[in-house]
Here is the input.
Amino acid sequence: MAKTGASLEWNGLDRTLGRAARELANRRAILDAVGETLVSSAIQRFRDGEGPDGKPWKASHRAKEEEGQTLVDTARLRNSIGHAVTDDAVLVGTAVEYAAIHQYGGKTGRGHAVTMPARPYLGLSQEDAKEVQSLLAQHLASAFRR
Here is the structure.
């Protein structure tokens, strides 16, 4: 009677998996790269004048009067966007006090008499999601190449 079967030779697979696991346990480097990508994308939105969904922002009165860019008077808001990395997350945003009213819109001014439209500059576009997926795939692949 003939025997049939398959065999598996580890040839260091356990060492490779251990090394990759150690490499992947430190998530800060990949989270930092994701943060840099998302900050860059948010800054680009100020140049393009559109939100993460690709919809153009409603032009501001100041931009119309001065033939300037919406949300870019002094560029303080745009230049304040940054990211912070924790052990398990990346945070992208700004500490500028008027950031939220521009992101979400709402009532503002004396007596809240002015309704400001939302002009979202933070968020994840479809292109951002693809870029983040690519970064993660490259990071995963590099953990097994070493």
